[in-house]
Amino acid sequence: MTDMVNTREKMVDKYTVPNSQMEKVLDCLLYSLSLLYIAACPFTKVEESYNLQAMHDLLHHGADVDQYDHHTFPGVVPRTFLGPLCVAIISFPLTSLVTLLGGSKFIHQLIVRAVLTCLVLGSFRVYRSAVRNRFGTQVSTWLTLLTMSQFHFLFYSSRPLPNTMALVPVLLSLSFWLNSNPTMFIFTAASSILIFRGELAMFLGAVLLMELVVGKVSLLRVLVVGLVSLLVWIPLTVAVDSFFWGRLLWPEAEVMYFNLVLNKSSDWGVQPLLWYFYSALPRALGSSLLLLPLAPILDRRTIILLFPCITFISLYSLLPHKELRFIIYTFPVLNTAAGATAARLWINRSKSSLSRLISLALLGHLVLNLLASSTLLYVSSLNYPGGQAIRTLHQLEVSTTPHLSVHLDVLACQTGVTRFTQEVPDWVYDKTEDLSDEELGRFSHLVVAGQHRYTLHLKHFLKTHKFIGQVDSFSGLRFNYTNFPPVEVESKPALYILKKIKDDS
């Protein structure tokens, strides 16, 4: 008996310790990649503005709610402050230290994004641990490898979107599910639905339906825990958000009414019914998508992973307005199923020549994903001309012009300008829309959109202003098979920085 125990301990030392070391290495790479994404694309777009501006205001205005950005730019529907509040609380010590050391306010934006990605990746690690317990170490390792090789999950992990905020409780709830803890699954799933994204009821509801059908959870427990969740999460979001918005409201209820009842989301674009399947998923999963059809064949356990994902994406496809980020919650689960396929193929790699070729193809597909991710990261870095423009303006004028007034047009505000990028307290930053040429002429500096300097709406300023900067943005890809690599990234002028000519008379 003693020999058996000793043998078991040796096996644990042989397999568990190296796996633990591998996991730490993968974690370091995972966090490093996410921070690299932030460094390469430090700016944000308009759909991220609410949460990011809220983080800024929480850090810089505190209880002075009247100074908050959402009173000036409320957006189409109200959003919850609970996500930004959590990020701001964690970020506060670091941003305070940066301020104390005289650092730029723009560094605060990088800090809050880094904190957000750490929260998402922390919940991802909890989910991966549950995958390891349920499916084994090989599957959890491949889950991490696939995630690191793909672009969109890591890219969005630091983006202050409602979908990203919801990722944290979603991944935690999924980990409770895989660890057979239905009470905490229901409770945490309810928080993501009631506070952040109501449509998650379709995704997490499909998981709960499976548990009910197979008898792993009783209807009574669902009702009791569901009632407790309603009594906890709804009063919490109503209390916090009513304070910040200055009126009684439940933000996510208004969002769901806007999207589902009024169907107003289609005003922002309509995509074909099957768009998620033929466009979003191939871009999100890359070549790893090819592993999914084999998953239920090689490992029948993956059926429980595929069912809620396919159900959610199919139901969500009925809404005309579609964006890739709307289904981001399914990516880790789909990667788990793909990881199960990869793990089985990898384990069998030495059984035949064909198996060895397949294992090489597995490694090759990771390289292919990484190449695609690198290209997408470079392209994405060219999509924030507004952020580049305001940084360029500061570099050009902050030392020579202590007091100036700058007008930022719509494109600039939509592609990178935030309160974090408004770094000089003595400058006036104006974002008023639809100003006349005479009104714009009163500003010392203008950041305006244009395809070239002689664009019609810029002609009025040719005699009164001089061009001091130009920012280009991504315009497309061009294939040239005589060069290597055969793909060239093209750009075009997007924003111009104009400075008013002083009247010497």
Describe this structure in words.
The chain is an alpha/beta fold. It contains 19 helices and five strands. The protein has a five-stranded mixed beta sheet with strand order 2-1-3-5-4. Helix 2 crosses helix 3 (82-100), helix 3 (82-100) crosses helix 4 (105-135) and helix 7 (162-178) runs antiparallel to helix 8 (182-196). The radius of gyration is 25 Å and the shape is globular. It starts with a helix and ends in a 5-residue tail after the last strand.
What's a quick, concise take on this entry?
This protein is an alpha/beta fold and 505 residues long. The protein has 19 helices and five strands. Strand 1, helix 18 and strand 2 form a beta-alpha-beta unit.
Radius of gyration of CA atoms, rounded to a whole number: 25 Å
Shape: globular
Unreliable residue stretches: 1-17
Q: Identify the strand order in the major beta sheet.
A: 2-1-3-5-4
What's the average pLDDT? 92
**Structure classification:** alpha/beta
Helix percent reads 55-70%
Count of DSSP E strands? 5
Largest sheet: 5 strands, mixed
Terminal Cα span = 102 Å
The number of distinct helices, counting runs of at least 4 residues, comes to: 19
